[in-house]
Here is the input.
Amino acid sequence: MAEPTKSMQYRVLLVDDDRDMISLLSSWLKDAGFEVDPVMSGSEAIARIDVFRPHLVITDLVMQGMDGMTLLSKIHRQNPLMPVIMLSGKAQIADAVKAMHLGIAEFLTKPLTKDELVARVRYTLRLAAGESDSGANFGKEIIYRSEKITQLLEQAKLLAATDVTILITGATGTGKEALAKAIHEGSARKDQPFVAINCAAIPEQLLESELFGHEKGAFTGAQTKHEGLFQAANKGTILLDEVGDMPLSLQVKLLRVLQDFAVRPVGSVRGIPVNVRVISATNTDLEQGVKSSRFREDLYYRLNVVPLHLPPLGERREDIQPLLNHFLKRVGQRDNKKRKRFAPEAVEYLASAPWPGNIRQLMNVVELCCALTNTDIIPLAMAQKALRDQPAHVQTLKDAKEDFERSYLVSVLRVTNGHVSHAARLAGRNRTEFYKLLKQHHIEPEEFRTSRQATEED
Amino acid sequence: MATRIVRVDPELKDLIPGFLNNRRQDALTIRAALAQEDMETVRILGHSMKGCGGGYGFNALSELGGILERGAQNRDSEAITNAVDELQAYLEQVEIIYD
Here is the structure.
């Protein structure tokens, strides 16, 4: 897919049983350069998909016969990655929340303007382009649809063009290494080595030699000279994963490397210059580590020149469905088998699961489900079993309630485009109480607003 | 009721006569439905008018659609009758400028 702004080549299948609405939307979209196929029912839409091969489907939610939600699930059964924009009135907001929670459709509330529609269509196509054919795009290995990751990658892309030292934070399994690799591959160093080392996985006594190398005979067993990972990564990028677990004795040596741009192998008296971009990653709170003297403050500031935070999967649920599809495809290709699919109830279940192990856990669940299911469709019961069999820590009730409350507030604000009065009304709270809740969760309603709505609210 | 002069995007010019004809038909259908206490038909037509009136440039029709929809939900025949009267008067008097 090319840039969505060159919209002439994009085909939009438009589904609405209201002839005046469909004429209006067709006219707007054609004027914006899209090729439009308007149909007046869900069943016509299903029939047209294989023929018209749209890049995007726009459907009304409430229609005679097949409604928008049924159409959506039928479309995704055949074309799991097809972007869909659902049009709904404010009265149907509960359904909107449900579908958004599943992360399977963009929502647009009526009445709407031409600018809103065209902007959302371009935005959705842009996200879909990034997901399904991102050969030329930054972060092509990162699967996402959420706004959070979109923004994070935009920032990372800018950073990739520089040599600035980056600290990536995020819980286990959130994709820290994938992000570091994307930065490397988006940089001028992309044809040079990318070397990743997990500082927590290597015994302390070996880590120094692994990182900086050693001379022959430097210690018992050092029968040959070893150049170390910093030298192996010369002119490229090194990822120091789980840097928070690096022993203090090595932290000072790492600090010296970062200051002098030279490594000194174990047993050597001279420094060897290296030209390496350093990205470090951690799932621990390094600031806390500094306070409790487990991590050197000077090293912390050296590493944390620019912080990037990867949110847990529970805060980017829109990405669950594309991730499931991605891993299903990968497993199918790897095992040279027909690609399996999750039953819609299984997708719904997985989309609302807690995922304490994040993307890595999701990947394991897909692997397990594919291995244990003989049929093409993975049923709900199998998804439940696979998730139960995954080791996962149990949240406290307080944490679980807080997580739910935060994701609920985000959903309601997203549906109302950041309009606090509307959101409060939907949530059955008064404005003051609602603001208080937002403050507790550090949620800014402005972030959910379009410029037009911001003006109306103000 | 707001002004009867409406400015419409020229790109919609071909669609406007059909759109306004459909609203005239709606007015007749609503009156017939009201006579049979068929509030669901009134609600659907009101909802649809509310959804697309403003998009065509006729904000007044969106407002009337909203009144009809609420009227049907509340089974308020008087409100519906007034709104249909207003709708028909509006459709007779509205002047369109394409710019």
